[in-house]
């Protein structure tokens, strides 16, 4: 069973373990990324407010930003809880509300990343197909965005509603769930993991196809593909690189950790403790996503890039306009 835990809900036989890493190091790291993400996402909100939703790509990027902002609101609660403040009431708030919001935002953002890769694939590789013209419609993008939020809320919000049991003395997030809540938690967790692996495979396929298409295009027009091609590939794989760095380690580590949590698992207490620490470390990488997504906005949205550069007084007008090769590599996404 997949467990949505705070750092106080730890591996079996280690429910009250005090760890320097999880209770001292991680709160500091979360505080740092919270401060950085507040500035970066605040700037992104300000810029996207001035960017019209004139394409399906912009619609998906704006939805990604909404998911990141919602996720960001959960970090202060985690920091305070990890430092040992707030008592059982704060732990209950984290389990019932902020942890649910964190995972809701996390997998919603992953879904929009996969939609972006799919839209880019059809626009660049299959630009003449009927599916491409369909996906480019703004109304379709908005409908898919709304459908994504509705589906994710359907699977995640019951985890909050069904955490309605009295607070036990030996507190854990699973202990405050009803029997239906535990079952629904398992269903929603498997659903989320399925979303991740489908999104990962889809993105690998889409961006591999795009990279091959761009390479063939450069060869066909007999351009020097060494430097320009490298720049294009960096732009193409910016989203995939963020996805792999932030999300893959957690979902790989989650497999042995989940097995260790099963009642019949033959894991020593020390092994369970180590797996818990690894799970928390890789979960931090997923939280780091809110600081890296603005880089994706910069590379993928030309209007976002222009407005950002206008706010940088040290950048003169010549530097604002990229050379032809770079312009091609960025605008192709």
TrEMBL record:
One GO cellular component, as annotated: plasma membrane
InterPro entries: GPCR_Rhodpsn, GPCR_Rhodpsn_7TM
Annotated Pfam families: 7tm_1
One MF term in the entry's GO annotations: G protein-coupled purinergic nucleotide receptor activity
Membrane topology: Multi-pass membrane protein
UniProt keyword list: Cell membrane, G-protein coupled receptor, Membrane, Receptor, Transducer, Transmembrane, Transmembrane helix
Subcellular location: Cell membrane
UniProt keyword annotation of Metal-binding present: no
Keyword presence, Translocase: no
Name of the featured protein: P2Y purinoceptor 14-like
Protein species of origin: Carassius auratus (Goldfish)
Name of the coding gene: LOC113058970
């Amino acid at each position: 069973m997949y467990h949505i835990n705070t750092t106080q809900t730890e591996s079996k036989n280690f429910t009250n373990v005090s760890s320097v890493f999880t209770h001292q190091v991680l709160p500091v790291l979360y505080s740092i990324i919270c401060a950085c993400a507040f500035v970066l996402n605040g700037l992104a909100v300000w810029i996207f407010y001035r960017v019209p939703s004139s394409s399906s790509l912009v619609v998906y990027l704006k939805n990604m930003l909404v998911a990141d902002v919602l996720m960001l609101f959960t970090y202060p609660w985690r920091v305070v809880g990890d430092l040992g403040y707030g008592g059982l009431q704060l732990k209950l708030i984290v389990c019932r509300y902020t942890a649910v919001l964190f995972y809701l935002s996390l997998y919603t953002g992953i879904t929009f990343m996969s939609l972006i890769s799919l839209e880019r694939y059809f626009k660049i590789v299959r630009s003449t197909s009927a599916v491409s013209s369909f996906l480019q419609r703004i109304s379709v993008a908005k409908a898919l965005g709304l459908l994504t939020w509705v589906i994710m809320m359907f699977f995640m919000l019951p985890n909050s509603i069904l955490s309605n049991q009295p607070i036990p003395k030996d507190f854990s997030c699973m202990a405050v769930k009803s029997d239906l809540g535990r079952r629904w938690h398992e269903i929603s967790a498997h659903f989320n993991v399925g979303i991740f692996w489908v999104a990962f495979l889809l993105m690998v396929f889409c961006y591999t196809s795009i990279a091959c298409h761009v390479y063939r295009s450069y060869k066909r027009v007999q351009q020097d593909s060494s430097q320009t091609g490298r720049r294009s590939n960096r732009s193409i794989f910016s989203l995939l690189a963020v996805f792999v760095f932030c999300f893959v380690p957690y979902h790989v580590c989650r497999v042995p950790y989940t097995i260790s949590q099963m009642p019949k698992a033959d894991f020593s207490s020390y092994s369970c403790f180590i797996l818990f620490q690894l799970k928390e470390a890789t979960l931090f990488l997923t939280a780091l996503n809110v600081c890296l997504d603005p880089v994706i906005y910069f590379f993928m949205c030309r209007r976002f890039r222009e407005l950002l550069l206008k706010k940088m007084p040290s950048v003169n007008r010549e530097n604002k306009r990229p050379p032809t090769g770079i312009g091609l590599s960025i605008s192709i996404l």
